Amino acid sequence: MKVSSVNELKSIVSTCADVADQVTVTDAEAFRGAPIDRLVYNAVFAGSKEVRGTARWMIKSAGLSLGVWSASIQGLYEAMGRGDVRGYTVPAVNIRGMSYDVARALVRAAIKNGAGAFIFEIAKSEIDYTYQRPAEYTAVMLASAIKEGHVGPLFIQGDHFQVNAKKYGEDPEKEVSGLKELIGEAVGAGFYNIDIDTSTLVDLSRPELMEQQRLNYEVGAELTAHVRSVEPAGVTVSVGGEIGEVGEKNSTVQELEAYMDGYLGAIKKRGIEKGISKVSVQTGTSHGGVPLPDGSIAKVALDFDTLDKLGETARVKYGISGAVQHGASTLPDEMFDRFPDVNTSEIHLATGFQNMTYDSKNFPADLRDRIYKGLHEKFGSEKKEGQTEEQFIYKTRKKGFGLAKEEIWTLPEDTRRAIGAELEAKFDLLFKKLNAVNNVGDVKTYLNSARIAPDPSHEVAGA
Length: 463
Fold this sequence. Notes:
The chain has 22 helices and 11 strands. α6 crosses α8 (134-148). The chain has helices spanning 6-12, 28-31, 34-45, 49-66, 74-82, 99-112, 124-129, 134-148, 165-170, 172-189, 209-230, 253-269, 304-318, 338-341, 351-359, 365-379, 389-396, 400-403, 405-409, 413-433, 440-446, 456-461, and strands at 17-19, 23-25, 68-71, 90-94, 119-123, 152-162, 193-197, 238-242, 278-281, 323-325, 346-349.
């Protein structure tokens, strides 16, 4: 499947697309067959940087030809903030492995439900341990949409672009500079939605709320200014903020007000007109859930009343879309109906789909065993005192997607199709539970993001 030259790459699409300064698809049905599969595989795994970069450019350019492009969700979230749109929660899904097939399953479920508002995302930490840099991730997500016949914008998001509190304490300038570099890389790759997480800098030892939140909103404003400095003409990147570290104490309305008042003052000083479009809060969840000694997940007491009050304050007082719920994918299915009831604007979902993949009867047992063995060999030092084998595997197996990236990607087609069908059924359920259905019209009405043509030299340089 790998090719060794750009000419070989172009020959893949010779019967269904013209390749010049841009890619013009001449036979959409044929292009969505084997050609897009081969292009995306080479965009990820080709040995040559030139081939990988050219494949990514071809996918993005072909997407424009077919009416698929990377966009900012800003306009829709502004409509939520005004109250013009409400009643559903936008799902944001972190895809860690078998990315093309998982993304295709999400797109199929979205099409089935008439959903135009859904987000592909990857966190700063996931970029590292799954070996998916932003340029690659964008190309794969766009390819999945092309493959499944989606037409319209795709929302691709950098999740938890997070400041490390310890490193910030040692060298603030270096830590912030590193995050700015990642933001530049991500926006340049087509991530037009960026969640800035400076909530790690909240200092609860301070007596006053404004002082507790000061570094959170000041550094958040600095990073927002950087986003605005690197976003392309015609695109307002949707930026998210965060007031409470997920897994810690629940957020309060007073904390939200302290953060927002401080943040708005800080961006005003910097001459920034557009601030955040949403705010992540803590209401009782943790990322991935809390594994018990037998490997099962502890029940969560999620505070929907707090979530409701925080979201209402965010919309009414500050005009942003509302509150964002993290760490939700391992919650019981019956809880998901509640999020649109309290007008949660966005919900982040990750570990539950990872668990479904690993635990599927269709996932090869021998591969799973080799991955788990590799986790012990590479990450055994991370096992905490008193942690059971089941707890260690549960907490670290997310890193297995990087260890066995190509082997998982190239599992037999019937295996991938079966796992994809299981995931599609879950995505379908969640779209319905979140009432995130039949909203293509909202996206068309409120989206005002430009379609950015990819630069082939930029794609090759970043491959």
